[in-house]
Amino acid sequence: MYIVILAGGSGTRFWPLSRQHSPKQLMSVLGGKSMLQRTVERVLPLKPKRLLVVTNALQSRETARQLEEYQQAARIDIVAEPVGRNTAPAIGLAATIIAGHDPAGLMVVLPADHYIADEEGFRDSLRTAREAALNGYLVTLGITPTRPETGYGYIEADAELRGNGPYPVRRFVEKPSLDKALTFLAAGNFYWNSGMFVWRADVILDQILAHMPTLAARLAELTFTADVWAPEDLKPQIARLYQEVAPESIDFGVMEKADNVMVIPTNFGWSDVGSWNALPEVIPGDDDGNLAINTRQLVTIDATGCLVYGSDKVAALIGVRDLVVVDCPDALLVCPKERAQDVKKIVEELERQGRKEYL
């Protein structure tokens, strides 16, 4: 089993903590280890043959530093993308590298910045996915929904007469309206799209060839030295590849079009930790629902449902409700929880203004 960790995102919804050089996955958003380190530790009990971490060139040095302590437990290679091109080129590149050594090698593809409460349950789900993937299916992990969430994509499964799965996928659905999300929840055969996949390297490359021929052609041009596991040697070729391919997600480019997709229902306490208001889902607050991270102390008077991320300071809240307060050395964010998804708009505005020092 080969583990591919996608760690090239910028985490704009976690500004001002998350920046281009130090994005969410490299930060201790939940306290303790970074989210990338937690992801690596989560898969080490599976005894993977190798880990490939695909990251951005701006983040590769810090990524390597954070993963150095795990090199004794597993061989970890870092592949640096010169620019972001979404998930399809990153996954195709990783599959090409793995196939150069082991064409039918089993790949597990994971984001670097997710939270999972039941880690053994997560590993059991990957073990369950193994058989279907080895038989030539593209397998995705679907999260059993607990609420009518409008911020996630959904997967509709053909769940009739198939026990506990895996189930054939009928369709992928983009982020729905509340009415549709309520319908999906009631139907019982819709699952949140986790963005976690299991498949053989040759199978995903065949599907990229079938549905993304331009990307497949560019990937086929990659040539390896005697040592396939030398990503640094591929650097000039990767630079050319990323100049010639368009940004595209693996969901849209392949998964929504392929006819050999299976979904495994899971329930291991998952969150994509997509924005500040997701943290109370994974970290318990106090009796008033207030949550403090990286603060020396939180003092409240008539304050409820607030999240404070501090800079090792005492934080005080008086008479406020459902606020997000993030204090960094050079920036301060204050917003209602319900507007936390709009934090990315601040990043877009700073970029428009040319304030690169804050990105």
Keywords for this entry:
single chain, 359 residues, alpha/beta, five-stranded mixed barrel, four-stranded mixed beta sheet, 30% helix, Mannose-6P_isomerase_type2
Describe what you observe in this structure.
The chain has 359 residues and is an alpha/beta fold. The chain has two domains: 2-271, Spore Coat Polysaccharide Biosynthesis Protein SpsA, Chain A (Alpha-Beta Complex); 276-358, no CATH class. 30% of the residues lie in helices and 25% in strands. It contains eleven helices and 17 strands. It has helices at 35-43, 60-67, 87-101, 119-134, 178-187, 201-211, 213-220, 235-244, 250-255, 279-282, 343-352; strands at 2-7, 50-56, 76-81, 106-111, 115-116, 138-143, 154-157, 167-173, 190-200, 261-266, 270-271, 291-293, 297-301, 307-309, 314-318, 323-328, 331-336. The strands form four sheets. A five-stranded mixed beta barrel has the order 6-9-7-8-10. Strands 12-14-16-17 form a four-stranded mixed sheet, with no helix packed on it. A two-stranded antiparallel sheet has the order 5-11. Strand 2 (50-56), helix 2 and strand 3 form a beta-alpha-beta unit. Helix 6 (201-211) packs across helix 7 (213-220). The relative contact order is 0.15.
